Amino acid sequence: MASQNLTEYERKRLENIRRNDEMLAALKIHSKASEVSAAAKRSRVASKSYTVKSEKKPKTETPLVIRRSLRTRGVPPDSEGLKDIALESVNVTEKSPAKVLGPLSMRDAYEGDDEFDRSFGEAIVGLAKKEAHSRSLNGEEIGSGADGDASNDLKGRNVGTSCVVERRKEEYKVWGSLKLESLTLNSENRARLVPTRITAVQFFPSSNVKMIVAGDKFGNLGFWNCDSSNNEGNEVHLYHPHPAAISGILVQRHCLSKIYTSCYDGLVRLMDAEKEVFDLVFNSDESLYSLSQPNNDANCLYFGEGPGGLTIWDSRTGKCSSQWVLHDSRINTIDFDPENLHIMATSSSDGTACTWDLRYTKKSKPSALRTFTHQRAVHSAYFSPSGRSLATTSLDDTIGIYDGANFENASTVFHFNQTGRWLSTFRGIWGWDDSYIFVGNMKRGVDVISPVHKKIVTTLQSPHMSAIPCRFDAHPFEIGTLAGGTSGGQVYMWKSS
Q1: Sheet containing 378-383: which strands, arranged edge to edge?
Q2: Distance from first CA to last CA of the chain, Å, rounded?
Q3: What pLDDT is stored for residue 391 in this prediction?
Q4: Segment Disordered: which positions (predicted)?
Q5: 113: exposed, middle or buried (Cβ count in 10 Å: 0-12, 13-18, 19+)
Q6: 496 near 482, Cβ under 8 Å?
Q7: How does residue 41 score in pLDDT terms, banded at 50, 70 and 90?
Q8: DSSP 169
Q9: How far apart are CA 212 and CA 222, in angstroms?
Q10: Quick one: which of 489, 497, 434, 496 has its CA closest to 212?
Q11: Residue 67 above 90 pLDDT?
C-alpha cells in the first residue's frame, strides 16, 4: 500500500539498494568487513597495552621543583624554627670588612662624632695607676703582669684575690641580705654605647670608678664612664677595632689600661691605652666564640675556637700552649671556679656543659669531670661566687642549677629563652653571692631566680627600660650595681638605693 504512493524515482532507488545488497551478500563483503574491523580493534588494544607495560627510561635532567610556602600549602608553621647553630650565626657578619692584620691605632679605630681626643686614653692610664695604688694600700700585692716574672706575678695575684674575697665577705656577711626591691633604674643610668646589638658587656674591675665597656655584632667597642658627664650627657667613647661580632671582653685586673677582645672573625686584640693602640695578638682561620682568663694567671688566655675547640694562648711566648677539641659544636662560655681555679666550666651549642680539671689535661683528648645535658644549645655555664654551684642557660627554656661536692644535685627552673634572630641569647649570671641568678626576659625586664626556692622570685622592671636586656655583668666591688646590654646598643645600670 505504501509502495503505491511512491514516485517513480523512489521505486527505482529502492530497487537499486535491493540489488546491491544481493550482490554484496553473494560476495560475502559484510562478513569480511566485520573480520577486518575486529582485527583493527585487537591491534589498537595490543599496542596500548604494550605502551603501558614498557619500562620507563631514567630521567637525567633535574626535575623542576615549584617552591610554595607553608601558608599556601595549608601546612602549619614549623614550631622548632631554625636550628640552634643557625640562630647563633645569623646576621653575625652582615657588615664584615676585610681583616686588618696588624696594630691598629686608637686614632684610626675611633668612631666618635667629634675629633679624636687622647684624653680618654690618658684617663684610663690614670685610672689604672690609681687602682694599683689603692690595692697596694689595701695589702693587695700586684705582680708585674705579662711582662714580668711569672712566679711573683702568680703569687701576688693569689694574695690579692684572697684579700678581695675576705673583704667582700666582711662587707656582706649574710647571704641574701641584698634587698631586691632596692634595685632601681634611673634615667641617668642608661646610655647607648654602640650602634647595634650588644654581644658582650663588662664592668671595669675597679673600686674607684664605675666604667662599662660593651662590644656589638659589628665589631664596635664602646666605653661608658658612668661617674663622669659632659654637657651632652654621659661620657661615651666609641671605637671599631674588629671586623665582626665581638665575642669576649677581658679588662685586665692587674692593669686596667690593657683590655683583650676576641672576635667572630678569628682575631684577638689587646687595647693598650698607654700606647694608644689595638695590638693584634692572635689570628685564627676559625671563628672565636668565647674568651676567658683565670684570676690567678694574667699570662694565659682561654678562648673557644671553631667547632668545639679550646685554645690556650700564652702571652710570654706569643704562642698557643695547648689546643683541644672538647665539644662537638662551638664553645659559648668559659668560666673558672673562683675557689679552685684549676676547675673550668664550658658551655656548648652541642647541648652540653662540662667541668674540667686543668691539672689533668695534658692528653690530646681530656676527659670531662662531669657533663650536664640539655635538649638544645647551652649558651652559658657560670660558677657561683663561692664555687659551690653552677648555673646553665639553655635554649630548651631551662636554667639548670647544680650543687653538691661534685655538682651531683641537679634542678631546673623553667625560663623562656627563645630570643629569636634579632636578640643576643640570654645568659643567666650570678650576683654578688650564691643567692640570686639574674637573666633577661622578653618583657623588657630582669628575672631574678632563687637557687634555694628553684623559681623566679621577682622581676626588675622600669619605665626607663625601652629594650630587652640580654647580656649582663655584676660590678665586682659594688653590691647591687648591675649592667644589662640590649639589641639596640643601650646599656642599663641598676643600682641599689
Answers
A1: 378-383, 389-394, 398-403, 409-414
A2: 130
A3: 97
A4: 135-155
A5: exposed
A6: no
A7: low
A8: H
A9: 8
A10: 489
A11: no
SS (H, E, C) 139-165: CCCCCCHHHCCHHHHHHHHHHHHHHHH
Q: Cα(266)–Cα(287) distance, rounded to whole angstroms?
A: 5
Supply the DSSP symbol for 110.
B
What is the domain class of 104-136+169-496 according to CATH? mainly beta
Cell of 424: 643576643
Question: Whole-prediction pTM value?
Answer: 0.75
Contacts of 344 (CB under 8 A, 6+ apart): 302, 334, 335, 336, 337, 355, 356, 357, 358
Check residue 276 and report its DSSP letter: T
Structural domain spans, the chain:
3-48, 104-136+169-496
**Nearest Cα to Cα of residue 441 among 411, 380, 410, 484:** 484
Tell me the angle at which helices 8-27 and 29-53 cross, rounded to the nearest 10 degrees. 60
Using CA atoms, how far residue 436 sits from 144, 400, 409, in Å, is 35, 13, 17
Integer Cα distance of 293 and 259 in angstroms: 12
Provide the residue count of the chain: 497
- In angstroms, rounded to a whole number, what is the distance separating the alpha carbons of residues 391 and 449? 11
**SS3 label, residue 462:** coil
Q: Which amino acid, residue 283?
A: N
Mean pLDDT of 110-135: 82
